[in-house]
Amino acid sequence: MRLLLDENVSRPLHQAIKAFILNHEIVHLLDLDRWSGTKDESLYPRAADEGFHAVLTNDARQMQRSREVAAIAASGLHRIEYPHRHPGLAGVGLAIATVAAGLPVALELLTEAEGQRLVTLRGIDPMPASRLRVVDPAVSPPKHWPDSA
After folding, report:
1. Is residue 59 predicted with pLDDT exceeding 90?
2. Is 138 exposed, middle or buried (0-12, 13-18, 19+ CB in 10 A)?
3. Going edge to edge, which strands form the sheet with 54-57?
4. Which of 32, 72, 82, 125 has the fewest C-beta atoms under 10 angstroms from its C-beta?
């Protein structure tokens, strides 16, 4: 499968994707001559004409704009969206984790899909309390914890 990364996909995420997606061609829009700044209405038909099978984007509003939705539908390309709502290194980390967890499965499903699909990769909760649990063994010792008394 030939996957085009939209202009809004960060370079660190592009590098991460290329490190773990080995059996598919991954191309960033910014690496293509004269593609930078291509409006979404033109991007999808152009990508289809150039032999891409899917576009990865984090533009959640794209599916709320009728002309862009029409262009996506007419292109026949699979659209893969991932959330990227948080700034800085934490935001990039969450995006990488979300895409790393979901993209391999999505590409496998899309390779076998008959017809166009719209995929949303689910996010990873950015709240620290949801991502990890911290236990003070002096206050709440786990089972089999040696007695320090």
Report:
1. yes
2. exposed
3. 25-28, 2-5, 54-57, 78-81, 118-120
4. 125
139, exposed or middle or buried, with CB in 10 Å at 0-12, 13-18, 19+?
exposed
pLDDT at position 133 is 67
The two tokens of residue 53 are 């099978």
What tokens appear for 48 in the block?
A: 């289809």
- How long, in residues, is the chain? 149
Q: Which of 1-10, 41-50, 73-82, 136-145 has the lowest mean pLDDT?
A: 136-145
Token pair of 46, please?
Answer: 């152009």
The CA radius of gyration of the chain, in Å to the nearest whole number, is: 20
Domains of the chain from N-terminus onward = 2-122 (3.40.50)
Mean pLDDT of 90-98: 88
Cβ atoms within 10 A of the Cβ of 107, count? Answer: 22
pLDDT at 17: 94
Residues forming a β-bridge with 3: 26, 54
Beta carbons within 8 Å of 107's beta carbon, 6+ residues apart: 1, 3, 21, 24, 54
